[in-house]
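Forum > Structural Biology > Help requests

Title: Can anyone predict the 3D structure of Transcriptional regulator, LysR family?

Hi all, first post here. I have the sequence for Transcriptional regulator, LysR family but no way to get a structure on my laptop. I'd be grateful if someone could post the structure tokens.
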Amino acid sequence: MIDVKQLKYFVTIAEEGQITKAAQKLHIAQPPLSQQLKQLEEELGVPLFDRKAKKMELTAPGKAFYEKAKRLLAQLDDAVAEVKEIEEGTAGTLSIGCVKSCFYYLAQAIRHFHEQAPNVTFHLREGDTFSICQLLYERHIDIGIVRLPIDSADYDVIRLPGERYVGVLPAQWKTGQTALCMRDFADWPLLLLHRVHGAGQYERVIEECRRHGFEPNVLCECPDATILLSLVAQGLGATIVPQSTVALFRLPGIKVLEIIDSSMTAEAAAILDRQRYLPKSARTFLDVLQTVAARAAGEQHEER
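Reply #1:
Sure, ran it for you. Structure tokens for Transcriptional regulator, LysR family below:
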């Protein structure tokens, strides 16, 4: 009968590519590990590795078994975590991935959450929406904070309140304006946020420009909001970003103006793997995040 220990041994050998390295990682001697692998292959009736190569490579059956074994071990880890956190949920590490244009929400939420659960530590990852979705799929993070739209088939999506877009110009441009119209951007080079893969804010801004009767002059596309704002500060062009983005990354050399005739709304969401157990600390953090986002949306509304 195959047991959990054999699955762990097999997965480690597959990932390390050598019995010796796997034994070192598992802190056991090499002969017992080789024996466990032999017993597993006898139990299954198929060779799991090609031993002719310098590095142990998975056979076709081995590859299939590796994917299943890794998934089973992950599910077991989730079950153990769920049992342990039924009572508390106030310790451990919370892994969060966030797009840079949503860092304002994240920073505020972490500050408030830390006051409630000071023993919870954080592991943060940054990327565009596509990258954050990949990190969640590969189980590197517990929660993703992304810009919509996304393909939501694989995720539970918790929408955050929408926010307006603003225009960001170089401070050195002496336009004399206190607010902008979309047609103003027809005369300026634009620096726009653009995902590595998929459609998002870039397509939304382009569509809004066309709705106002012009084709924008896009000088630069970039998934990183801070890089775009730095380029604006250097006088290369203007950009259109969610208001909360410049609330956090308010660089010298830029000026932020309201766009009075735009109907664009920047939409963000927290996303979760619907097949995965979510620890109590993560559920509490989501409550805090939604409260922070709602408060920020209310403050924006009052400013109008």
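The chain has ten helices and 13 strands. The first strand starts at residue 49 and ends at 50.
Shout if anything looks off.
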